[in-house]
Amino acid sequence: MADKPRRLNLTRKYQLMTRGLDWETTYQSMDDVFPYDKYEGIKIKDWDKWQDPFRLTMDAYWKYQAEKERKLYAILDGFAQNNSQLNISDARYMNAVKIWMQGVTPLEYAAFRGFAMLGRGFRGAGARVACQFQSIDEMRHYQTQMHAFSHYNKYFNGFRQFARIRDRAWYLSIPKSYFEDAVTAGPFELITAISFSFEYVLTNLLFMPFVSGAAYNGDMATTTFGFSAQSDESRHMTLGLEVIKFMLEQDEGNLPIVQQWLDKWFWRGYRLLGLVGTMMDYMLPKKVMSWRQAWEIYWEESGMALFNDLARYGLRPPKYHEVATKEKYRITHEFWCTIYQFSHATALYTWIPTEEELDWFSAEYGELFDTVYRPRYEYWKELDDKGERFFQKRLPVVCNVCQIPIFHTMPDDPLMNCCLVSEYKGTKHQMCSQGCKDIFDREPEKYCQAYIPPQQIYQGNCGGATLEAYRKWLHIKDEETGEYYGSEDHIMWEGWKAQAGKPADVPA
Question: CA neighbours within 13 Å on the CB side: how many for 164?
Answer without folding.
Answer: 14
